[in-house]
Amino acid sequence: MNLKNFNKIARPISYTLLASLLTTLATFQMPAYGQASMVPEDNAELRALFEGEWQEEFNTWGRWGDDDNKGASNLITPEKVLSANALVEEGIVISLAAPVPQVAAADVAENGLFNQSMLRISDRNSADNYQVSYHGLTVAHMDTWCHFFEDGQMYNGIPVEGNVTMEEGCKQGSVMNWRDGIATRAVIYDIAQLKGVEWIEPGTPITRADLEAWEEMSGVQAGPGDIVLLYTGRWKRREAMGAWAGEVAGYYADTIPWIHERMPAFLGHDFNIDWNPRPGWEGIGNPIHIATLIWMGINIIECLDLEQAVETARELDRYEFLMTFAPLPVEGGTGSPLNPMAIF
Asked: Does the reported pTM lie above 0.85?
């Protein structure tokens, strides 16, 4: 058969195969970009533990004194700061905050927009005004004790009534407890690399087994006074596929004992920390928030942009570094927007 006759036969066959392939790809999610979410088999069992013995077993109230307001941040001692500074080898400084949102999106509510407005422009200078509601899905921020309550109490048994008011905000447990700033060791848990994907699909529970598998793979693990940074590739996925809300690849409930064992000062994430949605957890709001902020005295930092830090960590094959940030010193504040720095 000559080439001309072969092409007459092969071309329609190749078009048919191509059409079939395109149809298959349209319904098949490539594994390089994530995996389907699932509900683990022990979901109901963990809820029972959460509502039962865990509330006492993982409670640290009084560990650092009855009047303590800093919780696990007390583990960031001068010695801890010095050891974290020793991790600086290359002198590479990276911001862990995405640009603040100025356009509404699925993960940016109207009240979450960062409003920057000019006050004046003269022949000598200019001035502007900032306004933002930073709690939410987009702005890098930290939460404090008075952001979450349970049974009328916050961390260390401080009653909400009389302590948190519309007029004064928080009297105890406010962001002022961290006004001197944080400098400590941070450890990235690169779950996307662990799974061999570009990002973890929204709605996927990140389990204790995942965290421990990453520790074995990377050779590093978080410890007392550290910052845990969970990387799911949120911002990479957002850039490729657009904004979304309601589904989060976050910490599953079986990580609560792990968090208590590691006892970091801060639990971080590139989205909101709790796995969501949580079938079987109806009536309980954000169990990881409750366990860390209220029971253990571990602070939360959310919506961090870890993309460049992860890229650098992969290039250096080093997943621990110095991390530093300071909140705005707002008296009565329930948290603060942040621009944290990773220093390799």
From this structure: yes
